[in-house]
């Protein structure tokens, strides 16, 4: 590689993300959708090298297009996915709603009612068994392990 190009790439390493975004805009002609410093550095350095030493051959470009069907690729996840709107199935380890889980812990019987959405313990609703197990034990616990729902016996 050209020593002058090496020096330019080394200078890029020290640039702030805003300066890398400016370089990206200059080299690619569009605004970067990413503000990630490492991503910007790699893209700008690659582009500088491609311009100085030559880009991919036409054959390599065609092969890359065959491998990556652009129609199937998403650069960013959809807003529905980020909001959690993608339906998630109920954990198979959980018993049916209205089931009462019982566990003896330090001489006390712990009873937790399984709800459609979450759990009920001592009149309060919880989103997870782990929250209940941690409250009862006074330390962090995996709820499935605590109540013996992971295939083993409760500890």
Indicate the radius of gyration in whole angstroms: 27 Å
The helix content, as a percent range, equals 40-55%
Arithmetic mean pLDDT? 86
How many β-strands, per DSSP?
4
Largest sheet: 4 strands, antiparallel
Strand content: 5-15%
Oligomer: single chain
- The SS-based structural class is alpha+beta
Q: Give the low-pLDDT segments.
A: none
Sum up the overall morphology in one term.
Answer: elongated
Describe this structure in words.
This protein is an alpha+beta fold and 155 residues long. The chain has two domains: 3-76, no CATH class; 100-146, no CATH class. The protein contains seven helices and four strands, in the order H-H-H-H-H-E-E-E-E-H-H. A four-stranded antiparallel β-sheet has the order 1-2-3-4, with helices on one face. Strand 2 (108-115) and strand 3 (118-121) form a beta hairpin. Helix 1 (3-13) runs antiparallel to helix 3 (37-53). The longest helix has 17 residues, at 37-53. The chain is elongated and about 75 Å long. The model has no long low-confidence stretch (mean pLDDT 86).
